Amino acid sequence: MIGSVDRHDLTTAVETGQPNARRAHEFNDLGKRGVEFRSLNEAIDTSTSGGRLTFHIMAAMAEFERAIISERTKAGMSAARSRGSFIGRPPALTAHQILEARDALATDKVSLDVLAERYKVHPRTLVRGMKQSLLFPFDPGV
């Protein structure tokens, strides 16, 4: 829609959230075509130099806030890992289940699909678990 806006068009847009770098770039492109932006909620009017300054400051602050949140999240995850916490989805199979599945594949000649159904996982999950545990003596061909 923004690509088709022209100088004398009146467009109403409803969006939540703060200005960001992408949006600032879009409004710069619109400004080059003579299109102005006036916010109904904030005191932003890109037809004035003060309004453009306000918009860019808000976009820069939003970008900064996202970067700070990302840094804090990564630091928190690193601290949790150093305390021994597991980050991410829990394993679908226990070590015992992987051993059972390996033995069943090797001795009982049970198919990978049957084993996967027994443990209620996808066959690729079963193979990945065996490979990660270094318990997979042969390639089942999946």
Please characterize this protein's 3D structure.
It is a single chain. By secondary structure, the protein is an all-alpha fold. Helix content is 55%, strand content 0%. The protein contains five helices and no strands. It has helices spanning 21-32, 49-82, 95-108, 112-119, 123-132. Helix 4 packs across helix 5. The radius of gyration is 28 Å and the shape is elongated. The two termini are 46 Å apart. The model has no long low-confidence stretch (mean pLDDT 80).
Summarize the structure.
This protein is an all-alpha fold and 142 residues long.
Mean pLDDT, as a whole number?
80
Approximately how much beta-strand content do the residues carry? Answer: under 5%
Count of distinct strands: 0
Which stretches are low in confidence, meaning pLDDT under 50 for 5 or more residues running? none
Using only CA atoms, what is the Rg? Answer: 28 Å
Query: Structural class from helices and strands?
Result: mainly alpha
Shape: elongated
Binned, the helix content reads: 40-55%
Top keywords for this entry?
elongated; 142 residues; mainly alpha
Task: Write the SSE topology.
Blueprint: H1 21-32, H2 49-82, H3 95-108, H4 112-119, H5 123-132
Helix pairs in contact: 4-5
